[in-house]
Amino acid sequence: MKRIVIIGATSGIGKEVALAYIKQGWKTGIAGRRETALTELQSISPERVETETIDITQEDAPVKINNLIEKTGGMDILLLCSGIGSQNPMLNPDIELNTAKTNVEGFIRVITTAFGYFRQKGRGHIAVISSIAGTKGLGIAAAYSATKRFQNTYIEALSQLSRMEKLNISFTDIRPGFVATDLLKGGKYPMLMNPRKVAEHIVHALDRKKRIAIIDRRYRLLVFFWKLIPRRIWERLPVKNG
Predict the structure, then answer these.
(1) In which domain, by residue range, is 33 found?
(2) Has residue 242 been placed in a domain?
(3) How far apart are CA 158 and CA 117, in angstroms?
(4) CA triplet 187, 192, 196: central angle to 5 degrees?
(5) How many distinct structural domains can be found in the chain?
(6) Cis amide prior to 216 (ω within 30 degrees)
(7) Within 13 A of 156's CA, how many CA atoms are on the CB side?
(8) Is residue 175 included in any domain, yes or no?
(9) Is the pTM above the cut of 0.85?
(10) Could you tell me where the DSSP H helices lie in the chain?
(11) Cα(34)–Cα(204) distance, integer angstroms
C-alpha cells in the first residue's frame, strides 16, 4: 500500500487532495490544527487514515510529524499544504511577521523533517504548495510573495543537495493561482479556481513527479508573460486585487 502524509489537510486544497488519495486507497496520514476536521476526514475510511494535530509554527511540530509518519506505517510522499497570506499594503508588521512565521519558519520545520526521513530511507517524494506569487514581488502582498519565493528556492536547493548525496528524492513545487479557499475569503479575484479541480491537477502532477506544476493552463500563460516583463516596468505596474 502506498502512503502519503499531508500537512495542512483540514480545509481547502489539502482536504481535497486528502480525499482524492483516500478514495484511491492510499494509506493517508493527515495533519492540521483542527482536531475536529481531522476526525471528520478519518471517519471516511478509519482503517486507511491516521491523524495528528500539528501546528507547524510550534517547536514540537517535527516530533509530531514523525509520530504521524510512524502511525501511517511510513511514507512515500510528503505534501505540505499549510500556508497563510494576506494583502497588506500598509505593511502591518504583525501580519508580515506572522506570514513569515508560517511560510518560512513552519515550512522549514516540515521540509527538513521530511528530508531527514527520506535521507535515511534513500528515496521519497517531497511536494509543497507554494504559489505563482513567488515568481514576482507583489506590492499588495510583500511578505506572501517573498515567502513563496523562499519556498521555491529552498526546494531547488534541496533538489541539488539530494543529487549531491546521490539520494533518490523527487521534488514537486506546486504553484497554483487564485483558489476559492478560506485564504481568499471576502476578496474579488480573477480566474478563481475550484479546490477540487486544483486537487485533481495536483494528484496528476504528483503521479508524474513533475518538478514544477503551475496550475492551471491560464496561469501557466500568465506566468510566462510575467517573466517577460522587465523589472523597471514591473515595479511601475499598479497590480491590485480585482
Answers:
(1) 3-234
(2) no
(3) 14
(4) 120
(5) 1
(6) yes
(7) 8
(8) yes
(9) yes
(10) 12-23, 35-42, 61-72, 93-100, 107-121, 142-164, 195-207, 217-228, 231-234
(11) 27
